[in-house]
Design goal:
alpha+beta, 126 residues, 2 helices
């Protein structure tokens, strides 16, 4: 794992100090998943996790896509655009969240910032 990926992981762990983090190096970067994260908001209150991969090209590549548990449900409506089912993340059935950064700025668009934006989107999108 290169220094930029390791730094991104450290920043995320520092932002969520009480959230268990699973890290799997893959020789090119790392897969991360957080157990127990609770986006809440428009989602049913169940034990959540969110996962993603940071590739060796980071910070010059987007941290995309993100994944959540495969049985995630919204309280009052369907999951909606940007979420597809039938995926697998680190051996777990998952939904893929398509929240690509179209104008990536490697100086400011960190893996942590992207994660925070994805969590906010999960909390507030209908």
């Amino acid at each position: 794992m290169n220094a930029a990926v390791a730094k991104a992981i450290s920043e995320i762990q520092a932002a969520f100090p009480e959230t268990p983090t699973e890290i799997q190096e893959d020789g090119q970067g790392g897969h991360l998943s957080f157990s127990g994260t609770s986006p809440s908001g428009t989602l049913h209150a169940i034990q959540h996790w969110i996962g993603f991969r940071i590739t060796f090209q980071y910070p010059y590549s987007d941290v995309y896509p993100h994944f959540v548990r495969g049985d995630l449900l919204r309280k009052r409506c369907a999951l909606g655009a940007g979420i597809t089912s039938g995926h697998n993340f680190l051996g777990r059935p998952s939904l893929q969240l398509s929240r690509r950064s179209n104008h990536l700025n490697p100086q400011t668009d960190t893996a942590l910032l992207k994660l925070l934006k994805v969590i906010q989107w999960l909390r507030t999108s209908p």
